[in-house]
Amino acid sequence: MTTVERPLRRDAQRNRERILAAAGELFAERGLAATLDDVAARAGLGVGTVYRRFSSREELIDALFEDRVLEVVRLADQALAIEDPWEALCAFIEGVAAAQACDRGLKEVLLGTAVGRRRVGEVREQMRPRAQELVRRAKAAGVLRPDFDPTDLPLLQMMLGVVAEVAPPDRPDLWRRQLRLIFDGMRADPAPRTPLEEPPLGFERVEDVMCRWRPSSRLRSDS
Questions:
Q1: For residue range 87-120, what is the model confidence (pLDDT) as tens digits?
Q2: Structural domain boundaries of the chain?
Q3: What phi and psi values does residue 187 have, to the nearest 5 degrees?
Q4: Nearest 5°: phi and psi at 144?
């Protein structure tokens, strides 16, 4: 009996790994609108196999992003270890923005869509004191404008996430240009200005980018 069960357990584990790998690719590319049927097709498995491992898209998202959302907490801890308060705050903001730019699904989870709320709620509880400390340190050092608030951080990430999502394929780092502008706006003393590493798009391409954007209401909590 034991010799029969072991291969089945190994097969189940392999299938789970294939499902998570396929879901990771799909959610990074398309966002959380990808369905369990889409995941099954990418994994090369039957839909029934996917549903046996994960009964809903919410359950799959929680499993997939359990470690990924905790990476944001690790980014905050790494930033807090930086001695310079301004560099620490900027490193955290840029680190989270870079993670979102590479993974559309992570961006949507972090920004509080209808799915993945349980895991994100836990992470936000851990993030709040860390974000407050990063902001407090920068203000105490006199490098951050006094009216900046920790609640501005998720809104800045939302702005950068939209730019990353709609950027042309040949300009995936366009969000970094907006980030430098944001950093200058955050400074207590904006001089000297931060050099912009990304050139502007030009009016025609900006129009094209704006047409790419669609409200995230297309996301649903059902599978």
A1: 999 999 999 999 888 888 887 777 665 555 666 6
A2: 1-55, 66-215
A3: -65, 145
A4: -110, 135
Q: How far apart are CA 19 and CA 26, in angstroms?
A: 10
pLDDT of residue 63: 80
C-alpha closest to that of 180 among 203, 205, 163, 204: 163
Is the CB of residue 157 less than 8 Å from the CB of residue 100? yes
First to last CA, the chain: 36
What residues contact 99, with CB distance under 8 A and at least 6 apart?
68, 71, 72, 75, 106
What average pLDDT is seen over the chain?
Answer: 83
Give the homologous superfamily in CATH for domain 66-215: Tetracycline Repressor, domain 2 (1.10.357.10)
Among 81-85, 98-102, 114-118, 131-135, the range scoring the smallest mean pLDDT is 114-118
Q: Given this structure, which CATH class describes domain 1-55?
A: mainly alpha
Residue 222 has pLDDT above 70, yes or no: no
Question: Any idea which residue has 């870079």 for tokens?
Answer: 98
